[in-house]
Write a structure and sequence with these properties.
Blueprint (H helix, E strand, L loop, with lengths): L2 H43 L11 H92 L6 H12 L9 H8 L2 H17 L11 H22 L2 H16 L6 H17 L8 H24 L4 H13 L3 H12 L8 H17 L7 H21 L2 H10 L4 H6 L1 H7 L2
């Protein structure tokens, strides 16, 4: 039904119900009048009885009263029948009224639902129009940005290319601090320099602050930090160390919560100054103060890395070396044992750290004040295990070259030269 039909239904319902009430009222009034007339007639017909002998006076009076009572009962019965009919009529009318109310509610609800559907359709059409307009505005904005900044035209592709160019120093199976720059070919070094220039072009967009790109940007900055830190280790040009520091700081800022591996990278970077100058015959007081300050910073960062990842291998390896440089060989040994106890390794990590951790741990044993038989036996056992791992990892020649020249084994050479010579054969 349409709105006009729905609007006209309600007055007819009220009219029907009112008419029924009027009929019922008239019926009741008519019944009451009829009942009163019949009673009055019955009483009047008996009000003037014929004269009878006194002996029958009592009987006659009782007969008159009985007749009046019967008339009243007949009138009451007729009135009851009329009232029953009226009640049935009222029940029928009430049912019709309830049915009409139900129809009215149904059509009212239907009208509301139809109105809601129309409103929803208009809202959906408006939303679609807004979305289409927004898409058009976005496309116009993209075209404007692409015309002004060509680097932004294929941002995700650019980032993937940059990651591919810099991934060479993120997956090395050797310690990046010493081998990253030295193992790169000249072609790869030039690729790094080109990648650096492209990163500078994207810097205007502050991509590191965007959650969508922060991980990729962090990896790129981290790779560039490793590149210049290891370049400093190779050529000892301090400008390269500072440049590496800038990139490591940028990688740290690209993520609110730095990862354990990034913190350990920065810690190792701070140790590069100490490592690059450890063969110098004499350090100036200024160099000594700077190196001690950098050691403290490195120790703090390496510990933060271990707080985030209890078994981070780079942090364990370098923190053990650092505390050993400070003379705390007991702590260095404890950290090394945590690393050698690892049973699961990420790709390339075992080859980087396990062999040399065992080797360093053997050297830490030799710094005890007294070389007892137990200490010598522990040192030889660690060296033998280190050689076995080096053989498995295919780096035995590198291991032998270091073991034959490492000054930390001098006490072992003096104490058991024949046994050491056999191990190094």
């Amino acid at each position: 039904m349409n709105d006009r039909t729905n609007a006209g239904l309600w007055p007819w319902t009220h009219a029907l119900f009112t008419l029924a009430l009027l009929c019922a009222a008239l019926g009741m009034i008519s019944g009451a009048i009829s009942y009163a007339k019949e009673t009055r007639v019955a009483v009047a017909s008996q009000s003037a009885p014929a004269r009878r002998p006194p002996s029958t006076a009592v009987v006659t009076d009782l007969e008159q009263r009985l007749t009046i009572l019967n008339v009243k009962l007949d009138a009451a019965d007729k009135n009851f029948q009329r009232n029953s009919q009226l009640i049935q009529l009222l029940l029928v009318v009430t049912s019709l009224y309830a049915f009409a109310l139900g129809l009215n509610s149904y059509f009212s609800l239907r009208q509301i639902l139809d109105g809601a559907k129309d409103d929803s359709k208009r809202a959906a059409d408006s939303a679609k129009e807004s979305i289409n307009n927004a898409k058009g505005d976005l496309e116009a904005f993209r075209d404007s940005i692409r015309s002004r900044y060509p680097e932004f035209s294929n941002l995700q592709g650019n980032l993937e290319d940059l990651l591919a160019s810099t991934r060479l120093v993120l997956g090395l199976d050797k310690d990046w601090a010493e081998y990253s720059y030295s193992t790169l070919s000249e072609e790869h070094r030039q690729q790094f320099l080109i990648a650096e220039a492209r990163v500078a072009g994207l810097e205007v967009f502050r991509l590191g602050s965007l959650s969508t790109y922060s991980d990729d940007v962090r990896s790129i900055y981290r790779a560039l930090g490793r590149f210049y830190s290891s370049k400093f280790r190779s050529d000892r040009d301090r400008a390269n160390w500072w440049r590496g520091s800038v990139y490591f700081d940028a990688a740290r800022e690209a993520k609110r919560q730095p990862s354990a591996d990034l913190l350990s990278d920065i810690g190792v970077h701070y140790l590069q100054v100490d490592l690059s100058s450890r063969n110098d015959e004499k350090r100036t007081p200024e160099q000594i103060l700077e190196i001690e300050s950098l050691r403290d910073k490195a120790e703090h960062l390496l510990q933060l890395s271990l707080d985030l990842d209890h078994d981070e291998p780079r942090a364990l390896f370098n923190l053990a070396w650092l505390v050993a440089r400070k003379g705390d060989y007991a702590k260095a040994t404890a950290l090394s044992k945590r690393l050698t106890a690892k049973t699961t390794w990420r790709p390339g990590e075992r080859k980087k750290y396990l062999c040399w951790t065992l080797f360093n741990c053997a050297c830490y044993q030799l710094h005890a004040p007294d070389l007892t038989d137990n200490i010598l036996e522990a040192a030889f056992s660690l060296l033998a295990e280190s050689r076995r791992v080096a053989t498995e990892d295919g780096i035995l020649e590198t291991w032998l070259a270091r073991a034959r020249t490492d000054g930390d084994l001098d006490r072992l050479r003096s104490a058991s030269p024949d046994r050491l010579a056999g191990l190094l054969a």
